[in-house]
Design goal:
The complex is a heterodimer of chains A (284) and B (601).
Chain A lengths: L1 E8 L15 E2 L2 E2 H12 L4 E5 L13 E4 L7 H12 L3 E8 L7 H13 L6 E6 L2 E2 L3 E5 L3 H9 L5 H6 L3 E5 H5 L2 H6 L12 H9 L4 E6 L2 H6 L3 E5 L3 H7 L8 E5 L4 E2 L11 E6 L5
Parallel strand pairs in A: 1-4, 1-6, 4-5, 7-10, 11-15
Antiparallel strand pairs in A: 2-3, 6-9, 7-8, 7-9, 11-12, 13-14, 13-15
Helix pairs in contact in A: 1-3, 2-4
Chain B lengths: L13 E6 L4 E6 L2 H7 L2 H12 L13 E4 L13 E7 L6 E7 L1 H7 L5 E5 L6 E6 L2 E6 L8 H12 L4 E5 L1 H4 L7 E3 L2 E3 L4 H7 L2 E6 L10 H14 L6 H5 L5 H7 L16 H4 L1 H8 E5 L9 E5 L5 E4 L1 H7 L8 H14 L3 H16 L13 H13 L4 H4 L3 H8 L9 E2 L2 E2 L9 H9 L12 H4 L11 H20 L12 H13 L5 H21 L11 H5 L2 E2 L5 E2 L3 H15 L19
The chains are: A alpha/beta (284), B alpha+beta (601).
Chain lengths: 284, 601
């Protein structure tokens, strides 16, 4: 069983935005693709998207699962229940977030999940509190809370606060969050919790520069794209490749921070990432 | 020499079996079904070993055969087809070993009129075996005994004539170093100690001279296929080999925690940039060569610190550099050159020295001069291995035997599979490769199981293995079995979009057989199981399909902060799944007879 999984709630009405937030363009990709990708990089288990029953979703990574709310219009607690149900027996804890978080950082996901993993059983929820606001939709939940969630849903007590009221919650304020050195370096302003709710907010967010990442090309790619490490602004792997004159494909692959090998141009990058572009023709 | 009409295109339908005890020779008919079932190269070699090797014989005993095996594609214009396999029971592992080498020896050897040349017996004195259209002769080898293989080749061709092509062993083989190579034109049939097997027969070299021609079923079709394959060989799938050679792996592997370092105690090496092809190619390249019939040209020749020339490959540099903690390119290149000169496998040399370095640092061997990071110590160790002097006498036995000799817990960090030292692929960050290394018949080998390709494809989880990795390991092992039997260079492998179907078509054009993808896949499985079956006969047990404990105890932490782990439980599950897919029983044994008996089915 995985230790930590992810749940991305995509079923909201997006009424103020006027268009589904999940499908909003983000550096050639979509917000949903970005958020699911960032969450996937922060956990070791599956990532589940919870959507409304008839909601059309943009493409997500093939490894991301999609489940549907049984009932529409019952808010995030319904989505949380659907997500936790999908993860039953597959993960101890789940990082749960909405789909409208363009600046969510992998380090934030890890910083929020870690206290729950480190704590044997006493804590049920790790709840960030940023700028005085509780952030239940950028938080970590123990998957065993499914029972409590279903009980609340059955009683039509649909506010997440009801759940928080009846379980052990570890609150992490700014200083507690930024005590995590990786997070402090990557997201000192805690922009991870900034969501976009209307067209102006989206436009402002989209106008921000792409994350600052470092890129290095190896082997024959270094001959074409130049040797050494360079800093580029790139929100996706594809943007980083283009910045070095490369195109991902059968012969060009990449590793982000020395981790999994990737060739998906929509793979989200976050500030501080180190991208290695490699020839796919390994071996000797 | 006239071909028998019934023999399919690309073949002579016979092997030559020479007993060097008295210089006598027999012709062994190879029936069409045997050829079709095993193709050539390592497949036919495995079959020959089943037929000709006495069960349980010491690999260095006179009665143990060593076979040079050609293939139906040798002599055609198909790029990279000028290759030959050398097959014998390994003095390093005690199991089957099959190593490939390239170039004119393959063409001349086949055109002696034989699909294989098998050497048995023991010559009464150091000798050279000559095979050509005039038959078999054994001539004195005293004048070349003690010479490096390359010098032996030159001396013999000067003496015999330029039409002769020579495969020879170096001084280390004469001293029965268990990982000594057989070399031709600077390329080595490198792994498993085949040089020691040949030298144990008092044979310094085998010289061959073409004496015949071999036809193909569809000459125009073969020419057309060769033209198309040649064009693809210039494409992006081979760019790495052309432009930088396999050393291009080193810095990339370092970036993804796949570069074995300090006897596999780490997966990245701070000194890697000093040894990188991206750095050295500009400073050191003095030439680039191709094997005969090859359009890729992967051989990158560098200058050592003293201006001598050395052929550079990733495995040489990994094993004599990072694996021993050495980042001085002058030292690493010189160590590689000396290995070539002595005729020893660089991977086993570096792996055994790295084990000895760890022993020395733990106080288990009395060698205070032998420390990780000391390039001069590596050079001294290489020389002592080649001469079997000092500590080299025990290191010449390979890490498994050396650890058994030293004891005191040193077996725990002798990093080998079946006695063969590990190549430069960190198994904890390459789960499919980990399985391939564990179950392969030859031992820890990256050429018979190229599963790293699947791990690095982007399609598989690199931190934890499962069913998809098992399927990938089986597929790449099958592909290798066919490529190594046809024989085509693996550097060409990504130039094929539908490999089994395309290889079947090449085989059809050459032989005239109506072979298709399905048959070739069955042939691959047969060859893989034939090797396993041979090993089973020689005492293999399921315990031999395993990885060193070092990999199972300690995960690798990636730069991302995540860990890649390979637990014993997970490895066991992958091996069990591999056995199931291969149709083996729970102990990894073939459930049906897989190796043919009789020579003319």
């Amino acid at each position: 069983m995985a230790k930590a999984a992810g749940v991305v709630l995509a079923g909201g009405r997006s009424s103020r935005m006027g268009t589904p937030k999940a499908a909003l363009e983000w550096h050639g990709s979509t917000l949903l693709r970005r958020v699911t990708g960032v969450v996937a990089r922060g956990v070791d288990g599956p990532v589940v998207v919870v959507a409304a029953r008839d909601q059309e979703l943009p493409d997500v990574d093939a490894h991301v699962e999609v489940v549907r709310d049984v009932l529409d219009g019952r808010g995030p607690l319904q989505g949380l229940g659907a997500g936790l149900a999908a993860l039953a027996d597959r993960a101890d804890v789940a990082f749960v977030c909405s789909t409208d978080l363009p600046f969510l950082h992998v380090a934030f996901v890890r910083a929020v999940v870690r206290p729950l993993l480190d704590d044997a059983a006493r804590t049920d929820v790790v709840l960030p509190v940023v700028h005085g606001y509780r952030q239940p939709l950028v938080a970590a939940y123990r998957t065993t809370l499914l029972v409590a969630v279903e009980r609340l849903l059955a009683a039509d007590r649909l506010r997440p606060a009801h759940l928080l009221d009846e379980c052990h919650v570890l609150k992490l304020d700014q200083s507690a969050l930024l005590a995590d050195r990786a997070l402090a370096a990557a997201d000192p302003g805690l922009d991870s919790v900034v969501n976009v709710n209307d067209p102006d907010g989206y436009a402002a967010a989209r106008a921000r520069p792409a994350p600052d990442v470092t890129v290095e090309c190896f082997g024959v790619l270094a001959g074409a794209a130049g040797r050494g490490t360079r800093r580029v602004a790139a929100a996706t792997l594809g943007e980083a490749a283009r910045a070095r004159g490369l195109a991902l494909g059968p012969h060009v692959i990449a590793a982000v921070n020395g981790d999994q090998i990737a060739r998906d141009p929509d793979l989200p990058l976050v500030t501080g990432d180190a991208v290695a572009f490699l020839s796919a023709d390994a071996g000797g | 020499m006239t071909r028998v009409p019934a023999v399919p295109g690309g073949y002579f339908g016979r092997a030559l079996a020479v007993d060097v005890t008295d210089g006598s020779a027999d012709v062994l008919p190879l029936g069409t079904q045997v050829l079709r079932d095993h193709i050539g190269g390592v497949g036919l070699g495995a079959w020959l070993l089943h037929e000709l090797a006495p069960a349980g014989a010491d690999p260095l005993a006179a009665e143990s055969p060593l076979a040079f095996v050609f293939s139906p594609l040798v002599g055609t214009p198909l790029t990279t087809s000028a290759k030959f396999a050398v097959v014998a029971k390994s003095p390093l592992t005690g199991f089957l070993t099959d190593a490939l080498a390239s170039s004119h020896f393959a063409i001349a050897g086949k055109l002696t009129g034989h699909d294989a040349i098998v050497v048995r017996g023991r010559a009464p004195e150091p000798s050279v075996l000559l095979v050509d259209g005039d038959g078999v002769r054994l001539v004195g080898g005293g004048a070349v005994w003690g010479l490096p293989a390359a010098d032996t080749e030159d001396a013999l061709r000067d003496r015999l004539g330029r039409g002769w092509r020579v495969a020879a062993v170096g001084p280390a083989a004469e001293r029965l170093v268990r990982y000594a190579t057989i070399s031709h034109d600077g390329r080595h049939a490198g792994r498993g100690g085949l040089g020691a097997v040949l030298a144990a027969k008092n044979v310094k070299a085998v010289a061959v001279r073409a004496a015949s021609r071999v036809g193909v079923a569809d000459p125009a079709g073969v020419v057309g296929a060769a033209r198309a394959l040649r064009a693809r060989s210039f494409g992006p799938a081979t760019a790495k080999y052309r432009e930088l050679g396999t050393l291009a792996n080193l810095l990339a592997f370092n970036a993804i925690s796949t570069l074995p370092t300090r006897n596999f105690s780490a997966a990245s090496f701070a000194g890697a940039p000093r040894l990188a092809a991206e750095e050295l190619a500009q400073l050191r390249t003095v030439a680039r060569h191709s094997c005969a019939s090859c359009t890729i040209g992967c051989e990158h020749i560098y200058a050592t610190g003293t201006g001598r020339r050395v052929r550079v490959e990733y495995e040489n540099v990994f094993a004599l550099g990072p694996l021993c903690g050495v980042d001085d390119p002058d030292m690493v290149l010189e160590a590689s050159r000396r290995c070539d000169e002595l005729g020893i496998d660089t991977i086993s040399t570096g792996g055994t020295i790295a084990w000895a370095m760890e022993c020395a640092e733990r106080g288990l061997v009395e060698a205070p001069w032998l420390r990780f990071g000391d390039g001069a110590a590596v050079l001294r160790a290489v020389d002592e291995i080649g001469s079997r002097t000092g500590l080299g006498d025990v290191l010449a036995e390979g890490s498994r035997r050396a650890a058994a000799s030293v004891g005191r817990g040193s077996e725990a960090f002798a990093v080998h599979v079946k006695g063969m030292e590990m190549p430069g692929y960190e198994p904890r960050t390459l789960p499919a490769m980990a399985l391939g290394l564990a179950v392969n018949a030859r031992g820890a080998d990256h050429n018979r199981s190229g599963a790293y390709e699947a791990d690095l494809s982007g399609d598989l989880d690199r931190t934890s293995g499962g069913a998809a990795h098992v399927a990938a390991a089986v597929e790449t092992e099958d592909r290798a079995a066919v490529m190594d039997s046809l024989i085509l260079c693996k550097f060409l492998r990504r130039a094929f979009d539908h490999p089994f179907a395309e290889w079947a078509e090449l085989l059809r054009l050459v032989t005239g057989w109506d072979v298709d993808e399905e048959e070739l896949r069955a042939t691959a499985r047969r060859i893989v199981l034939a090797k396993r079956s041979f090993n089973l006969r020689e005492g293999w047990t399921a315990a031999d399909d395993w990885l060193p404990q070092r990999f199972l105890d300690t995960p690798v932490t990636l730069p991302s902060g995540r860990t890649a782990s390979l637990t014993a439980e997970r490895l066991r599950a992958m091996i069990d799944d591999y056995y199931r897919i291969r149709g083996l029983d729970q102990e990894g044994r073939p459930t049906t007879a897989v190796a043919g008996k009789g020579t003319a089915r």
